[in-house]
Automatic annotation (TrEMBL):
Residues 11-84 form the Transcription regulator PadR N-terminal domain. This is PadR family transcriptional regulator. Pfam families: PadR (PF03551). It comes from the Bacteria. It comes from Paraburkholderia ginsengiterrae.
Length: 219
């Protein structure tokens, strides 16, 4: 069974339109703005994905061509199994939320490694980056609307923008709480929490010690 990935689905989708060589696939993904949601920056990743699909009989070699002084290019085409698998992957991705592990939530889980002021500064920087990305997304949408691109081909951009708006609002709220001191921590407070939530070597879940009057430290 071939492992699913956004890039693998993109390759199958491109080949559904007709036979292509890898460089043309990469060009089309970028030209259509799909590189906003699919990581196709590394050519090697594309070739590795094509190899997996080829070994899984989801695509096949159509022919090899030579264009003047350029190296030979292998042209691929989709198989019937590839068409069926592509539709299956798409249905699954649309219907079932997957367990994803993005870097930002992981970073948030280790905030105590930094001081509250340091975290506030980093999140302020992130808020600025999110604002700039929103402006870029809006400019792209305005350009697409100007040439009347159908909404069907802009839906992923709508979702990306909605996620940016929600994240920016949330980051700003956390920054505000850090500034106000309603969200804070100290080494002493963290040490107390570590004692209260201890995990024995043979345990499979946290053990909460008898509650104390310890509260989150005030600024």
């Amino acid at each position: 069974m071939v492992r699913h990935s956004p890039l693998a689905l993109a390759v199958l989708a491109m080949l559904t339109e007709g036979p292509l060589h890898p460089y043309r696939m990469q060009q089309l993904i970028k030209a259509r703005g799909k590189d906003e949601v699919i990581n196709v920056g590394q050519r090697n990743s594309l070739y590795q994905t094509i190899d997996r699909l080829l070994r899984g009989d989801l695509i096949a070699v159509r022919e090899t061509e030579r264009d003047g002084a350029f190296p030979e290019r292998t042209i691929y085409e989709i198989t019937e199994a590839g068409r069926d698998t592509g539709r299956l992957w798409l249905r699954e991705q649309l219907a079932q939320p997957g367990r994803e592990f993005p870097a930002f939530p992981a970073a948030l889980s280790f905030l105590p490694l930094l001081t509250p002021d340091d975290v506030r500064r980093q999140l302020e920087t992130r808020a600025g980056a999110l604002e700039r990305e929103l402006a870029r997304q809006d400019a792209m949408t305005a350009e697409a609307n100007a040439i009347q691109v159908p909404r069907l081909f802009l839906l992923e951009g709508e979702l990306v923008r909605a996620q940016l708006v929600v994240q920016l609002e949330w980051v700003r709220s956390v920054v505000a709480d850090l500034q106000a001191g309603t969200l804070t921590w100290s080494e002493a407070w963290l040490a107390d929490i570590a004692q209260r939530f201890s995990l024995p070597a043979d345990a499979t879940s946290y053990r909460l010690a008898k509650p104390t009057a310890t509260k989150e430290p005030k600024a």
